[in-house]
Amino acid sequence: MIITVTPNPSLDKTVELPDPLAVGQVQRAAAQHAEPGGKGVNISRALTAAGHQTLALLPGDPTDPVLTALCEIGVAHRGLPVGEALRTNIAITDPAGTTTKINERGPQLDAAAVAGFQEMILRAAQGASWAALAGSLPPGAPTDFYARLITALRENTPDDAVSASTDSTGAESPGTDDAAADDSALVAVDASGEALAAAAAAGPDLIKPNAEELLELHTALCGAEQAEKPGPVEAPTAAATITPEELEIDKTQVLRLVRDCQAHGVRAALVTLGAHGALLVPAPGSGEPVLTASGPPLEVRSTVGAGDASLAGYLSAAQRGASPADRLRQAMAQGRAAASLPGSTMPGPDDLRLSDVTVAEFTPETKDTAS
Length: 371
Ligand SMILES: O=P(O)(O)OC[C@@]1(O)O[C@H](CO)[C@@H](O)[C@@H]1O
Known about the structure:
Blueprint: E1 2-5, E2 10-16, E3 31-37, H1 39-49, E4 54-59, H2 65-72, E5 77-80, E6 87-93, E7 99-102, H3 111-125, E8 130-134, H4 145-154, H5 160-163, E9 186-190, H6 193-201, E10 206-207, H7 211-228, H8 244-248, H9 251-262, E11 268-272, E12 278-281, E13 291-294, H10 306-319, H11 324-339, E14 358-361
1-O-phosphono-beta-D-fructofuranose (F1X) is lined by residues 8, 10, 12, 37-39, 42, 89, 101, 103, 135-136, 304-305, 307-308, 344.
GO cellular component, one term: cytosol
Protein name: 1-phosphofructokinase
Family: Belongs to the carbohydrate kinase PfkB family.
């Protein structure tokens, strides 16, 4: 059982344009979609499509369009009533695969709602193998919400009364379906900015940043002095001066940044690098190799939710006891499939092209110092 936590869910509206976005002009949509979203919700949608047991936890009233949509598509969830509408986020896509995203702030949560949400999560996590904490925090939630949750999840112990509760689908909570039943849930975090920095320092088992989020995290955890200092891998460029686009094509630098962050609490990292694939950096001391994944060029329709599909792929492979290489392959295949689908559609098993993905042990480039 994998629980997902989405503190700031959204109704995701996607508008598909027949031409590139023209700022300041009136344009007609070629198609439009609305889907229940927010990163954790997407992960649960992808896990459900892959046939895994998952429970999405989110704030939201039972009549909110996000929750009613989850009921319609059969994704098990629990909503914490907050008496306010959830946000609507807009994605605008064009035929070249360019995605423009506008995300609302989300409803204001008061202290009681924040505490109630944490309590709901801790109860649902009992007996879960993984908890995926994903997305931005809504107004009112403290920046260290994920960090505190990680600590609380570590201390969370099974409780028979809780495992007999029911979820929104009316089914009994699965409670225990895997080897982690007697332990606290492993924690994966997919967030950004200050919430990610605070969470990463609390030592979740896995983080899933993209290039931009990794740069932000490095700056927050390591500061300028770390960016200048040579890490375990030779660094051709200081983190302070590299752009996310440059970082995506420089996996040696990605590894160096992750290594720096690992000195500040980060454990394993799955770094998604858009068209340039992904890097899986194991937790320090695990003895596992760093792995890289890549694939052939892809016709991109919408990048919204591709990272969420990747994390879902990693978790679903982990759930069936797959090796790190197969976790990375599944992550990459699911992310690619999501990018080739419209809106924030989550791929199902028929959409995956696992054989397109190449996974190899990563050898960092060393700077030529001979000259
Ligand atoms: O504002 P956040 O929480 O950072 O991101 C929210 C969001 O952009 O993330 C998902 C895609 O990853 C979408 O479903 C959703 O609209």
